[in-house]
From TrEMBL:
Pfam families: His_Phos_1 (PF00300)
E.C. number(s) listed in UniProt: 3.1.3.-
Record-linked SUPFAM superfamilies: Phosphoglycerate mutase-like
GO molecular function: hydrolase activity
Listed CDD domains: HP_PGM_like
Protein name: Histidine phosphatase family protein
Alphabetized UniProt keyword annotations: Hydrolase
InterPro entries reported for this sequence: His_Pase_superF_clade-1, His_PPase_superfam, PGM_Phosphatase
């Protein structure tokens, strides 16, 4: 059996790859480390975006674990062009997983990308793995596990947020464990 923790990063100053955590986000990162205090963690993988790495730095330091950065955990790009109606367009990509805007990534492509990583994690010897990423990508990963997850669940994600994926044989159970 494997426990995989899906973690959305703490509150950040923006969406850029180098956007740092806010002062509140830094406190949240400390709270996240405390939240995991009694849970075994063998391995930490993170999006290379600064806000994701900084989210898990206190926990990694507490455990003496390295943070493995993996590009497959970066946020899904909706479009290369600014969109004033991005919210409605994002909603549409949860309904039509193949919908792709100029310079962007379809939901299906993003799901395939992160599921390649998940497959590798499931094949590894580690049993308690923490994946740190971004809201949309995590919502799409969860949708690939449970098709009932969609745009509303993305909207409901907090910064940070934690879901636990338990995998035993071919069974996958997903539930929110963040307070």
């Amino acid at each position: 059996m494997k426990q995989i923790y899906l973690v959305r990063h703490c509150q950040a100053t923006g969406q850029e790859s180098d956007a740092p955590l806010t002062p509140s986000g830094k406190r949240q990162a400390e709270q996240l480390a405390e939240f995991f205090r009694d849970r075994p963690i063998d391995r930490i993988l993170s999006s290379p975006f600064l806000r994701a790495v900084d989210t898990v730095t206190p926990l990694a330091g507490q455990r003496g674990l390295s943070i493995e950065q993996d590009e497959r955990l970066v946020e899904r790009v909706l479009s290369a062009q600014p969109m004033t109606d991005w919210y409605e367009r994002l909603r549409a990509t949860f309904d039509d997983l193949t919908l792709q805007y100029e310079g962007g990534e379809s939901s299906r492509t993003a799901m395939d990308r992160v599921n390649l990583l998940l497959a590798e994690v499931l094949e590894s010897e580690h049993r308690h793995i923490l994946l740190v990423s971004h809201g949309c990508l995590l919502a799409l990963l969860m949708k690939s596990i449970d098709d009932c997850i969609g745009f509303a669940e993305w909207e409901a994600l907090s910064n940070p947020d934690v879901y636990q994926l338990t995998v035993a044989d071919s069974s996958r159970q997903l539930h929110r464990i963040w307070k």
